[in-house]
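Field log, afternoon session.

UNIT: design team B
ACTIVITY: writing a sequence onto a fixed backbone
BACKBONE:
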């Protein structure tokens, strides 16, 4: 009896252990499958500005799905969080900025982000506020510009190109209002966060806008800008908007699939048709 009882107990314990092992084994195999070739490994998470970046990404979804990837897009309204979430590993990439801005961000924040590819260029423009012509610019005119380092320099260079100010010779892409050597019309430069510039259009003579914020405000550079950067200028390459990833992920298979679609003929045609020159695909 004693031996029989022991045998029965051993049998029950062994059966429970076998069931437990079987459940654990099934779970482990599923995880391995997911990490190697399952749905989780096929999702590409991208942080983006609303216009035009998120719109362009939306247009790429079907083609990416044909390549086996599901594109998840999250829209952000500022220029900081999209980089923070990529640095933290929460997103695979972001799409909203150009390389000079990224370089400044890395230097200031100590982040480790890299440009994976150039996708498009947004001509910077001077747009009418309470005044509609630079030819008759008044003395003391107010001009709103973005206040982040690279975009402010870009705005000031455009104002210089159009005879409003003269910058110090070596100011270049790091120009600030302190680099204005000659203020030919005594203009007041009002520095605002980039997303806020278009909102003061009725309070100033002119605004100088990033392409995406101009689009969000209902401006089209071809139809509405008083002056704009030319597509053939150095700025087209210097300020090309990029797919940004964490350093080391530039050649990631999913990232490369995203880039291939965004640089493909379908997206180029979409950009040209939808934005009519306000956004220019990089060849």
């Amino acid at each position: 009896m004693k031996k029989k009882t022991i045998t029965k107990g051993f049998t029950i314990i062994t059966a429970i252990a076998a069931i437990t092992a079987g459940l654990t084994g099934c779970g482990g195999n599923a995880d391995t499958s997911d990490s190697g070739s399952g749905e989780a490994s096929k999702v590409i998470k991208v942080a983006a500005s609303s216009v035009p970046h998120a719109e362009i990404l939306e247009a790429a979804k079907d083609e990416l799905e044909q390549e086996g990837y599901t594109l998840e897009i999250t829209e952000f309204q500022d220029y900081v969080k999209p980089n923070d979430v990529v640095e933290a590993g929460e997103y695979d990439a972001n799409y909203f900025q150009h390389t000079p801005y990224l370089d400044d961000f890395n230097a200031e924040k100590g982040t480790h982000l890299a440009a994976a590819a150039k996708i498009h260029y947004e001509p910077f423009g001077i747009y009418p506020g309470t005044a509609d012509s630079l030819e008759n610019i008044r003395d003391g005119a107010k001009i709103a510009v973005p206040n982040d380092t690279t975009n402010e320099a870009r705005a000031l260079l455009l104002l210089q190109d159009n005879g409003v100010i003269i910058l110090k010779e070596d100011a270049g892409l790091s120009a600030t209002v302190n680099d204005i050597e000659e203020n030919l019309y005594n203009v007041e430069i009002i520095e605002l966060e980039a997303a806020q510039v278009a909102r003061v259009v009725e309070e100033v003579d002119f605004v100088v806008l990033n392409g995406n914020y101009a689009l969000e405000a209902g401006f089209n550079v071809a139809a509405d800008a008083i002056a704009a950067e030319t597509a053939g200028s150095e700025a087209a390459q210097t300020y090309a908007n990029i797919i940004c990833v964490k350093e080391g992920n530039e050649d990631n298979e999913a990232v490369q699939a995203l880039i291939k679609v965004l640089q493909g003929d379908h997206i180029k045609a979409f950009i040209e048709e939808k934005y009519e020159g306000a956004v220019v695909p990089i060849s």
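LOG NOTE: Residues 1-40 have pLDDT under 50 and may be disordered.
NEXT ACTIVITY: expression trials, pending approval
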